[in-house]
């Protein structure tokens, strides 16, 4: 059951990403182009996603477990450390450069040709590189 | 083009629905980089089935849609160096920040998580700067 619901969730996520235009790199870069020809569409995407999720979190707070009996996430961690800031900064730079973040990169994998595959493969390498790098850098958070 | 905010909003609501299913059914936070990253570095070994089925839906369902009604526009660059650098930055950054647009942006902001909000501010800022530098100053994208 848990695998079926995660498949449904992944499918909905993929559909939402292509409907919203998040898989179009020009649209994403247009949203980030605050000093150029700014395209505000993505504000509707983010707003549209956050709105139902806000109520879902409120409802989840009143439950002990998920519908399938698994534990619900702990209250959010509040510690803002160096890794969060540096990581988000690096991610944002890459997001602007190619116009793809992890979700849309996967949602467009089947129709984005070799360029999409190359971006995806590099992203996997980056994720894998993070493990030894994290170990080498003294951790504050 | 004029109606792109409608698609943005519809797609956003679908993404919010996907995150709601993942939270209420599986008891998990829907973050694309975390679901993939846990499979890449082995930290998600115990939940690999639920991660794999999520990714299957995320990759295959947009593929099916593209097959049936045609692929949405993507405009991805064919410059290999841009794709490789951007991919590594996105992979590395999302693992250091422990989240991307879906995890920190959609699921984090909607539960009023400080970490989610800080991460979103920094990746949007870096994305904007990235466009200024690589598009308007260097002209490589």
Write a brief structural summary.
The complex is a heterodimer of chains A (about 140) and B (about 140). Chain A contains 6 helices and no strands. With about 140 residues, chain A is mainly alpha-helical.
Structure description:
Chain B: It is found in: Cell inner membrane. Chain B: Belongs to the TsuA/YedE (TC 9.B.102) family. Chain B: This is YeeE/YedE thiosulfate transporter family protein. The complex is a heterodimer of chains A (about 140) and B (about 140). Helix content of chain A is about 65%, strand content about 0%. With about 140 residues, chain A is an all-alpha fold. In chain A, helix 2 (about 25-30) packs across helix 4. Chain A is globular, with a radius of gyration of 18 Å. With about 140 residues, chain B is mainly alpha-helical. Chain B has helices spanning about 5-25, 30-40, 50-70, 80-95, 100-110, 115-135. In chain B, helix 2 packs across helix 3 (about 50-70) and helix 5 crosses helix 6. The two termini of chain B are about 20 Å apart. The model of chain B has no long low-confidence stretch (mean pLDDT about 95). Chains A and B meet through helix 1, helix 2, helix 3, helix 4 and helix 5 of A and helix 1, helix 2, helix 3, helix 4 and helix 5 of B.
Question: What's the helix and strand layout?
Answer:
The complex is a heterodimer of chains A (141) and B (141).
Chain A: H1 2-20, H2 25-32, H3 41-61, H4 82-98, H5 102-107, H6 113-136
Chain B: H1 4-26, H2 32-40, H3 48-69, H4 80-97, H5 101-110, H6 114-137
Membrane topology (chain B): Multi-pass membrane protein
Protein name (chain B): YeeE/YedE thiosulfate transporter family protein
Subcellular location (chain B): Cell inner membrane
């Amino acid at each position: 059951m848990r695998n079926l619901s995660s498949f449904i969730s992944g499918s909905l996520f993929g559909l939402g990403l292509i409907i919203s235009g998040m898989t179009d790199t020009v649209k994403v870069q247009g949203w980030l182009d605050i000093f150029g020809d700014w395209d505000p569409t993505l504000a509707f995407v983010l707003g549209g996603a956050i709105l139902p999720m806000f109520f879902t979190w409120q409802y989840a707070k009143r439950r002990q477990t998920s519908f399938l009996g698994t534990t619900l996430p702990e209250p959010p961690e509040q510690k803002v450390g160096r890794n969060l800031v540096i990581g988000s900064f690096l991610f944002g730079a890459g997001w602007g450069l190619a116009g793809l973040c992890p979700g849309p990169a996967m949602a467009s994998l089947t129709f984005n040709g070799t360029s999409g595959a190359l971006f995806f493969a590099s992203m996997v390498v980056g994720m894998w590189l993070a493990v030894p790098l994290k170990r080498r850098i003294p951790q504050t958070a | 083009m004029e109606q792109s905010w409608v698609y943005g909003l519809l797609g956003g609501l679908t993404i919010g629905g996907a995150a709601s299913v993942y939270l209420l059914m599986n008891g998990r936070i829907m973050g694309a980089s975390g679901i993939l990253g846990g499979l890449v570095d082995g930290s998600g070994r115990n939940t690999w089935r639920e991660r794999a089925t999520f990714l299957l839906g995320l990759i295959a369902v947009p593929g099916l849609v593209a097959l049936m009604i045609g692929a949405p526009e993507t405009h991805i660059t064919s410059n290999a160096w841009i794709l490789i650098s951007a991919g590594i930055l996105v992979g590395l950054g999302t693992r250091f920040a422990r989240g991307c647009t879906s995890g920190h942006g959609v699921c984090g902001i909607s539960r009023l998580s400080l970490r989610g909000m800080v991460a979103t501010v920094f990746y949007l800022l870096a994305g904007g700067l990235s466009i200024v530098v690589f598009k308007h100053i260097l002209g490589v994208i």
